[in-house]
Amino acid sequence: MKAAVKSKPVLKVREMTFIAMMGALSGVIMLFRFPLPFLPPFMSFDLSPIVEMIGGFMFGPVAAVLIIIVKILVNLVIQGSYSVGTGELQNLILGCAYVMPAIFVYRKKTRKRAAIGMTLGTITVAVAAIFSNMYLIIPFYTALFNMSIDDIVAMCTKVNPAVTNTFTMVLLGIVPFNIIKYGFCSVLTFFLYKNLSRPIKNFLNK
Fold first, then answer.
1. Are 165 and 173 in contact (CB under 8 A)?
2. Which of 86, 83, 80, 84 has its CA nearest to residue 27?
């Protein structure tokens, strides 16, 4: 009985340590971000959501949020903030919007539920990104650099002439960018998760 009681905290410490490592890894991966052709130049593509989703599937919603927070902190330490915290807040919002629906659906752990959950998460984050960009990020940058929304639209028009106003920027820029980013991350997570989760769980349960 005593041995069983002692082993529980060890596992908990191992889990927390591994969650912190996943957050740090996600932060490093985020450094390798880049814009996508024909899509808004102020939006960047990276693969860090894969780590957050795998962590959420393995350890639950609290772990997923902790991974996102650690990622943001690691990125702040390495690169600092270019948006006085608004970009970091958006990252937290979008990260949670992506992983939470998927984790909820994946409570009954099947590949089908994982696929449905990540599809739902991709749709949710695409919608959340509209509001976070239109009411958080874009207003911040227009105020900081003394720009107007028309200036932001003009930036998008340079990479995609079909973008001519706010509506087309949302429809042809913000929405497709997030569907591509999180959809691609979902596909990779779908194929990577089982291969990665089993050895990790075996290690943590030793």
1. no
2. 80
Reported residue count of the chain is: 206
What CA–CA distance (Å, rounded) separates 181 from 154?
Answer: 23
Secondary structure class of 34 (helix, strand, coil) = strand
Tokens of 104: 């909820």
Cα distance between residue 153 and residue 68, in whole Å: 30
Contact indicator for 33, 79 with CB cutoff of 8 Å: no
* E-state strands within 62-172: none
**Hey, what are 145's tokens?**
């650099």
Cα 98 to Cα 129: distance, rounded to the nearest angstrom:
10
Residues 122 and 128: their CA atoms lie apart, in Å, by 10
Tens digits of residue pLDDT in 116-167: 999 999 999 999 999 999 999 999 888 888 999 999 999 999 999 999 999 9
The DSSP symbol for 36 reads P
Asked if 189 and 26 touch (Cβ cutoff 8 Å), the reply is no
CB 145 within 8 A of CB 84: no
